[in-house]
Amino acid sequence: MDRDHPMKAANRHPGRKPAGSADRSHGRKLVDDIDGLDARPILRPDLKIGVVLWPEFPLMSLAGLVEALRHAADFGDNSQRRRCDWTIMAHDPSLSVRSSAGVTVRPDRSYQDPADFDYVAVIGGLLRSLSSAPEGARAYLRRAAEAGVPVIGICTGSFILAEEGLLDGRRACLHAYHLEEFRESFPHVRAEANLDYIDDGDVLTCAGGISIISLASELIRRHCGPDRATKTIHQMSVANRADATPLTVTQALGYTRVADPRLRRAVLLIEQSLVRPISPQWLADQVHVSRRQLSRLFAEEFGQSPGAFIRTTRLRYGRWLLQNSSESVTEIALRLGFSDCAHFIRTFRQEFDTTPGAVREARARSDKVMA
């Protein structure tokens, strides 16, 4: 029976790379490339968030926020708080807070000056626990708002901010499950669902769940730069579609190694924005160059304008989806931002001198032969 042991089987072929080794090396190289975009000395974290937990808070909201910050904070995967930092606070940090799953979390310290943070976030608990305010928590949130520190309501944290009058006349992001009850309780707040978050300047609200990763990534982008946000998305395996990981997407496109760090950053941003509209001007703003300079960089390296490169990249991803997914041509076209299927087919033919249907038929013939 020992002959079937996987380790012994691998040792019989010392020259053969283990399955998946190329994926792992590519993933490590991608992170190394991102980390190499910014080698400046770090004197203090670029992003600091203070966190207040309500009884029966959802673990996913806390974990999503902290894990996003953790990946953006360090270089490599060493859990060093260099670019980002976070602090969980309570009146008495010796008392653990029980989550809705029954897992308890012990705060790091007592409430500290809100001005020490870029944001103060409150993660609300089950609705039945909202009236069980931790000692000093509401006063601390008001103190943060009065000091001009942006406050974030995560999950039912929006209820808490509304109760404190911090959402009066504003928009608020709610999970659909809580939307009706919130509207009944706070008719003076414009509550919306089916969004990841709403940024209303000095007050932000987030639906919770995996939506917190979207909000955290945006805050990381603003304070630490798009390279840190890209690393976060990659490390947390946030996919551009439900059944494809960012690493798979990168392999489908062919990650481009270029010398200019601004151009590398621009390419990474394009690869991470395949299913949402971006413009050359937005791209130029993110990498801190003028639109004319960005066009020059793309022309010198790729012989294309930024807009053409974005379109070509999406078409390449579309071709990969045709070959590797079960989505229809129409679904792929709409996912990639084309106005309709006909537009996608016409542009695809111009780029590859073939049609999406022909690519799908070739895949079907190949599958039949392999079967």
Automatic annotation (TrEMBL):
InterPro entries listed in its UniProt record: Class_I_gatase-like, DJ-1/PfpI, Homeodomain-like_sf, HTH_AraC, HTH_AraC-typ_CS, INH-QAR, Tscrpt_reg_AraC-type_HTH
Disordered, as annotated region: 1-29
One Pfam family in the UniProt entry: DJ-1_PfpI
Gene3D superfamilies: 3.40.50.880, Homeodomain-like (1.10.10.60)
Source organism, top-level taxon: Bacteria
Domain HTH araC/xylS-type: 264-362
Alphabetically ordered keywords of this record: DNA-binding, Transcription, Transcription regulation
UniProt keyword Membrane, yes or no: no
Xref: PANTHER family: ARAC-FAMILY TRANSCRIPTIONAL REGULATOR, HTH-TYPE TRANSCRIPTIONAL REGULATOR RV1931C
Protein name: Helix-turn-helix domain-containing protein
Species, as recorded: Nguyenibacter vanlangensis
